[in-house]
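for the recovery benchmark. tokens below, seq after
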């Protein structure tokens, strides 16, 4: 909403009527699919690295326990 150059002239209760007239750019279906695929792949990558981090933390715990036994 901040991107619209609209300055109300008075306290207007019908702002939906005013904003419904503005044109909003929307990506094409192809672009939306590409964006969705990008974020899905990013989520998978984050999950993979999170699992690797969890394994390394467990390994660290094991090494610390062996050091102080």
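predicted aa per position
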């Amino acid at each position: 909403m901040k991107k619209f150059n609209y300055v109300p002239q008075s306290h207007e209760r019908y702002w939906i009527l005013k904003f419904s007239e503005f044109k909003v750019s929307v990506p094409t279906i192809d672009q939306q699919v590409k964006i969705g695929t990008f974020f899905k792949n990013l989520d998978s990558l984050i999950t993979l690295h999170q699992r690797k981090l969890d394994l390394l933390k467990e390994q660290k715990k094991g090494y610390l326990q062996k050091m102080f036994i």
